[in-house]
Amino acid sequence: MATRGVPTRREILEKCVGLGVVTLASSFSPITMLSAFAEQESRHRKATPPNEIGPFYKKRAPQTASLRASGDPGMPLAVSGQVFSTRGEQLSNAVIEVWQTDHMGHYDLDGYRYRAKLPVDSAAMYKFDSVMPGHYPDRVCQHIHYLVTAPGYKPLVTQLYFATDPVFEGDPDHNFTRDPLIHSIELVRPVVLTGDPKEIQAMVRFELVLEML
Ligand SMILES: [Fe+2]
Predict the structure, then answer these.
(1) Interior/surface letters 35-61, b for 16+ CB within 10 angstroms, e for the rest
(2) By the 8 A CB rule, do 172 and 188 touch?
(3) 132-141 pLDDT per residue, tens
(4) How far is the CA of 143 from the centre of ligand 1 (A)?
(5) What pTM, to 2 d.p., does this model score?
(6) Residue ranges near ligand 1 (ion) with Cβ within 5 Å
């Protein structure tokens, strides 16, 4: 129902039909067509902003969702999300690679610690266990690198940032540009803390949206 003075999407579409902006050429009723059109529009998702690949990517990372070994220092971190197309389809054949530093800001350049190819399930969900990455001298903010591919879609190279990063001083909306590589606040994700004070864990959700080729 329309709020007083604010037209609903349906009313706008009906107006479009009336003005000839949208023409319905179908054996289905205008109401059916308008409902389907509105639903398609509502499922549309904005593509995830790209971000630089950086110098530390390594091919042939192992397939695993456990980047954190038992006893690893640093705050445990669980990241999860889903892979979509911009049309809202779940891309269950996507392949995700992630790489990050350990909690002290060191990349493993000799081996594959904190590097993984992630399984994606039939609903295009992914998740992995890790630790909160550290800061390192050439970069301002903590981050996790992503390379996401799926047949028929543009490869997505991006980075996940954390709203709790001390660099943002609690106000990422205003301070995200302190890292000159962050061009979009959408890459700075909220952090949920779970567990108890002795066994705290950070949780982050990061959806990935790919554009068609
Ligand atoms: Fe990096």
Answers:
(1) eebeeeeeeeeebbebbeeeeeeeeeb
(2) yes
(3) 999 999 899 9
(4) 6
(5) 0.84
(6) 54
SS3 149: strand
Ligand 1 center to 141 CA (angstroms)? 9
Give residue 175 CA to ligand 1 midpoint distance, Å.
19
pLDDT of residue 19: 82
Cα 52 to ligand 1 centre (Å): 9
Residue owning tokens 């950070």: 202
Chain centroid offset of residue 190 CA: 12
User: Whole-number mean pLDDT of the chain?
Assistant: 92
Please give the structure tokens belonging to residue 102.
């350990």
Per-residue b/e over 126-141, b at no fewer than 16 CB within 10 Å? bbbbbbbbebeeebbb
**Could you report the per-residue pLDDT of 45-84, keeping only the tens digit for each?**
999 999 999 999 999 999 999 999 999 999 999 999 999 9
In the chain, the amino acid numbered 40 is Q
Q: What b/e readout covers 94-116, taking b as 16+ CB neighbours within 10 angstroms?
A: bbbbbbbbbbeeebeeeeebbbb
Tokens of 140: 């301002």
Distance from the CA of 89 to the center of ligand 1, in angstroms? 30
